[in-house]
Amino acid sequence: MADPSSYRPRPGDIPDSPGVYRFRDEHRRVIYVGKAKSLRQRLANYFQDLANLHPRTRTMVTTAASVEWTVVSTEVEALQLEYSWIKEYDPRFNVKYRDDKSYPYLAVTMNEQFPRVQVMRGHKKKGVRYFGPYAHAWAIRDTVDLLLRVFPVRTCSAGVFKNAARTGRPCLLGYIGKCSAPCVGRITPEDHQELAEEFCDFMAGRTGTYLRRLERQMMEAAEEMEYERAARLRDDIGALKKAMEKNAVVLADATDADLIAVAEDELEAAVQIFHVRGGRVRGQRGWVTDKVEEVTTGALVEHALQQLYGEESGDAVPKEVLVPALPEPVEPVQEWLTGRRGSNVSLRIPQRGDKKALMETVQRNAQQALALHKTKRASDLTTRSRALEEIAEALDLDSAPLRIECYDISHLQGDDVVASMVVFEDGLQRKSEYRRFQIKGFAGQDDVRSMHEVITRRFKRYLAEKERTGEWTDGADTDAPLAEGSGTGNPLAEGSGTDNPLAEGSGTPDSLAGGPGANGSLPDGGGAVFADAEAIADSLKDDDGRPKKFAYPPQLVVVDGGQPQVAAARRALDELGIDDIAVCGLAKRLEEVWVPGEDDPVVLPRTSEGLYLLQRVRDEAHRFAITYQRTKRAKRFRAGPLDDVPGLGETRKQALIKHFGSVKKLRSATIEQIQEVPGIGRKTAETIAMALAQAAPAAPAVNTATGEIIEDEEPDTTGGSSGEPVTAGVPDERRGQET
């Protein structure tokens, strides 16, 4: 536990200007981000007598080991930079609402020639109109099913659409009148685009126009004695009204607004948001957060606004946002919202009438969400705590292992040998810290040797980070262990280069492969002044405070295996001089827990929560490893001659195959013909022609049932050709045993 006075900056060094500050722990990890109108006054509040601080604030300042800041010109820029840093660093002491990316939206792909209506989740895409979010996907499908009677917009996938266009027959929806069948030319692209626009207008709340138009058409059909057509129009009107009943009118003045309510106690807070468009509730979402810092209701509202609108613009930000308490100060937040929308946004507390009544409804939803969450969380916290305590007791650890790393080796009969590292913190998955490894130290099948290599590489990087940040302990042997296998004495040299297996993380950009801060970092102590908030956000890409790959040691290393694998892991740690990390292994056969140096395993009761947690950790490592191994194997089998062309990416490979139809036709093309493909210049065309000329053409594939030779005439949509024919007598690769 650090003494805040040990890193307290001198008051004269802190500017009396707006800015954003960061507290870092002893590992240089950013643990808290905050903004201030006056950095000097705000930071002074953290360095007062610890007894006067809020308990959570006291924990934060004693966990931190340094503080730094960045000066900006306005409070709006400070708000933007704070949001960027919280998204970038994921500080443990900041309020973080659980992500809402899994909420389903009704999406209309207006960026396509024939727009499609579908359910979408995840990040929003440019050119797509979104409505929602909805609590359940089935609610979207029910609404769409009703509206397709009146707005028969395309709902099929690209594959179904292309297949229908090829065969000349529409799908079932085209026959029953719930699709205009653009796939077979029943409607022009322009008319279908207009139909999709009308669908979007109706979903946006402009319903009166379409109802009046249908009623007029129904009356005209009845007057002309076209009773069947009049009956269909009557049913269409009923379908529209039924769809509208699912979203009752809550604000009579056709208001577009978002209502945010907060329910909180000393430890947690729940936020509920109602999205009202055209006076009707069009979507709802909710978040729950741990109050890891001392925070007011206004500050919770501010964090919710950042989460809601930090990546939105235009009409996605409504004209009016109703909240239970205003942030302090409110002017920068309102100016920031106005900038996101492009026009004035009203941020206020409803005082009377329908809006206040609706806010009370949203508040009740928030209170119920908090009560439900606390009921579930109580049992979860108790179970996880008991599991960690049981593991600590069984392995004779000094404290509960709050961070557990588990390693597994996977291969197919000795080919494509890979390894996985999964991380559990406080008994929960930490997927952002999962890592994958390729075994390149040797060829063949040897799980024990593979485990030794992976543990060595992972903890070499940990020691390298300690040495780089000046945290190296005096008793550590800094020469022999780190020089092993590198030839340079440099721990980062091991596995470096383009084949660096450490670069293959779980969804982590390759730019991080060299370790955080590899390309420079912000100076400690802060005070840097940037021209604008956008430049500040761009500077974060190379800051050494971003989440690091291997900088944080676990309290417990778990390996998937028995006594040999455990001994290999322990030996790797001993060779690196690491003796403060416990090791154990979980054998699959009898679920025995093996520890180094013991002839007999530790047997936990089958009902033990500790054993159940170890099983979950082990199974997750196995899943992650085997998924990576299958991906590598599939990629190897799909490899074609175009993969060997230097500088040719996936987009241009697909463009070449689309233009020529197959690799065979591309191989026979001239350089001038290859240059006709968009994005292919003379030099690239010559490189492609040379690479294809040097590559031996694939032998013809044979149909083993008929003996016929299969010609390579069909377009290769995968961007490459395997170059390997299917021959009789070769067993399917999936019959091999995966480990």
From TrEMBL:
UniProt domain UVR: residue ranges: 208-243
Keyword list, A-Z: Cytoplasm, DNA damage, DNA excision, DNA repair, Excision nuclease, Hydrolase, SOS response
UniProt KW S-adenosyl-L-methionine keyword: no
CDD domains hit by this protein: GIY-YIG_UvrC_Cho
Residue ranges constituting the GIY-YIG domain according to the UniProt record: 16-95
UvrC family homology region profile domain span: 259-485
Main localization category: cytoplasm
Compositional bias per record (Gly residues), positions renumbered to this chain: 514-526
InterPro entries on file: GIY-YIG_endonuc (IPR000305), GIY-YIG_endonuc_sf (IPR035901), GIY-YIG_UvrC_Cho (IPR047296), Hlx-hairpin-Hlx_DNA-bd_motif (IPR003583), RuvA_2-like (IPR010994), UVR_dom (IPR001943), UVR_dom_sf (IPR036876), UvrABC_protein_C (IPR050066)
Protein's UniProt keywords contain Translocase: no
Gene Ontology MF terms in the entry: hydrolase activity
Subcellular localization: Cytoplasm
Annotated spans, Disordered: 469-526, 706-739
SUPFAM superfamilies, sorted: C-terminal UvrC-binding domain of UvrB, GIY-YIG endonuclease, RuvA domain 2-like
SMART domains recorded: GIYc, HhH1
HAMAP family, per the entry: UvrC
Family, similarity comment: Belongs to the UvrC family.
The protein's assembly and partners: Interacts with UvrB in an incision complex.
Function: The UvrABC repair system catalyzes the recognition and processing of DNA lesions. UvrC both incises the 5' and 3' sides of the lesion. The N-terminal half is responsible for the 3' incision and the C-terminal half is responsible for the 5' incision.
Protein name: UvrABC system protein C
Species the sequence originates in: Streptomyces olivaceoviridis
Phylogenetic lineage: Bacteria, Bacillati, Actinomycetota, Actinomycetes, Kitasatosporales
